[in-house]
Amino acid sequence: MRRVSVCSALNFDTVKLYEKNQAISAPVEIWKGTQSTIKIGFTQDLWVTLPKGSAARIKPQLERKDPLVAPIAANTQVGTMKMMVDGKSVAEFPVMALETVDQASIFGRAWDSIRLWLK
Length: 119
Description:
Elements: E1 12-18, E2 28-31, E3 37-38, E4 40-41, E5 46-51, E6 58-64, E7 68-69, E8 77-85, E9 88-97, H1 106-118
Parallel strand pairs: 2-7
Antiparallel strand pairs: 1-5, 2-3, 4-9, 6-8, 8-9
């Protein structure tokens, strides 16, 4: 008789981490734009399937492309979110700009250039 190994759904949990268009952090600073901050998140609901019992230990780790400089269009990738369990990456997802930020006037860009240089 041949034995077939089947992974049971009872051994895994599927967890919804973020809603579509939900900001994942406080607004992020943006330079040389018509506004000083931007909301970042995901353009679709974010789900992950993990071994049973490990969902409570998941820790998100955001890696951003800093500094963010305008113009930035909505749905542009601005970073990566790594989902860590016990110090190991179990999933990575692109983090997107949830809104458009246009370029500031020449005076706004010059002022932010000076601030970036001093930073």
